[in-house]
């Protein structure tokens, strides 16, 4: 990495990266505090929201800074013989995929709330939320099983070696592609249905009550926000996933690697749906 980036460039990047970690941690903690303080934010899906924010907070405050240590040690020219990079990468991937699947279940929850509100209470009961969270953990831990045996990917400090491309693709499909695609379909569907309802409401707007118009307007605004949030999520996370599959570690420019680290971190630090 440091052959293509100057020492001052590495220093600026490290400081920027750590500042984003700090800002993301503070932002997520403030959101948690707001949920605990304001009753109107304590909706039926709050435990899924809390689960998502906690995973992002762990990534910003613990996993990402720790994952930066090998880069920092290489910059100062010192080795880290007792640092288990593979373990850090595994835990970082687990928490990242936990966040992806939590976002997916939140998307399903919002889809039902907006398009099938009469069934919403069924998906926000304590039993349903416990099943959702348990399912998320089971899926992610099962998906990560191959890495425990060194299958699919072998992580080293500042390097990730692909040992089985098919297994790695399967893991990324479960942890990244599938949640992102399904979530995108859900949010686009919500936006499309809301847009159609808005167009149809024009013809009966004279007879519609102010309350119904305001409800529809709020739903359309929420649909736009959800679509924008998913676009942000894809922009932050997908480039790193694609590069991991398409470009061998030794052929990845240092600037590209540092940029990918930063975009992924931005996704954890500022995730609009949270």
* Rg: 21 Å
> Which CATH class applies here?
Mainly Alpha
Q: What is the arithmetic mean of pLDDT?
A: 78
Low-confidence stretches: none
Strand content: under 5%
Q: What is the N-to-C succession of helices and strands?
A: HHHHHHHEEHHH
Domain module tally: 1
How would you describe the oligomerization state of the chains in this entry? single chain
CATH homologous group name: Rhodopsin 7-helix transmembrane proteins
Category from helices, strands and their pairing: mainly alpha
Give the strand tally. Answer: 2
User: CATH topology, which one?
Assistant: Rhopdopsin 7-helix transmembrane proteins
Helix content: over 70%
Cα(first) to Cα(last) distance is 33 Å
Give the overall shape.
Answer: globular
| Second CATH tier, the architecture | Up-down Bundle
The biggest sheet, with number of strands, parallel, antiparallel or mixed sense and barrel status, is: 2 strands, antiparallel
Instruction: List the total number of helices.
Output: 10
Side-by-side strand order of the widest sheet:
1-2
């Amino acid at each position: 990495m440091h052959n293509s980036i100057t020492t001052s460039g590495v220093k600026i990047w490290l400081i920027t990266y750590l500042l984003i970690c700090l800002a993301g941690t503070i932002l997520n903690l403030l959101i948690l505090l707001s949920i605990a303080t304001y009753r109107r934010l304590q909706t039926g899906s709050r435990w899924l929201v809390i689960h998502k924010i906690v995973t992002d907070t762990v990534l910003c405050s613990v996993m990402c800074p720790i994952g930066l240590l090998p880069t920092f040690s290489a910059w100062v020219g010192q080795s880290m013989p007792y640092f288990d990079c593979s373990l850090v990468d595994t835990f970082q991937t687990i928490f990242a995929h936990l966040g992806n699947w939590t976002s997916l279940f939140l998307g399903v929850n919002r889809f039902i709330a907006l398009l099938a509100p009469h069934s919403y209470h069924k998906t926000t009961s304590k039993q349903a939320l416990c099943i959702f969270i348990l399912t998320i953990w089971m899926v992610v831990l099962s998906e990560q099983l191959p890495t425990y045996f060194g299958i699919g990917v072998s992580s080293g400090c500042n390097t990730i070696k692909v040992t089985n491309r098919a297994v790695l693709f399967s893991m990324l499909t479960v942890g990244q592609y599938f949640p992102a695609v399904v979530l995108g379909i859900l949010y686009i569907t919500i936006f499309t249905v809301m847009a159609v309802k808005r167009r149809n409401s024009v013809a009966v707007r004279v007879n519609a009550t102010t309350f119904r118009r305001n409800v529809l307007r709020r739903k359309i605004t929420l649909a736009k926000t959800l679509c924008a949030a998913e676009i942000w999520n894809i922009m932050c996370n997908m480039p790193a996933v694609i590069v991991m599959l398409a470009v061998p570690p030794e052929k990845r420019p240092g600037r590209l690697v540092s940029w990918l680290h930063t975009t992924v971190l931005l996704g954890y630090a500022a995730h609009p749906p949270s």
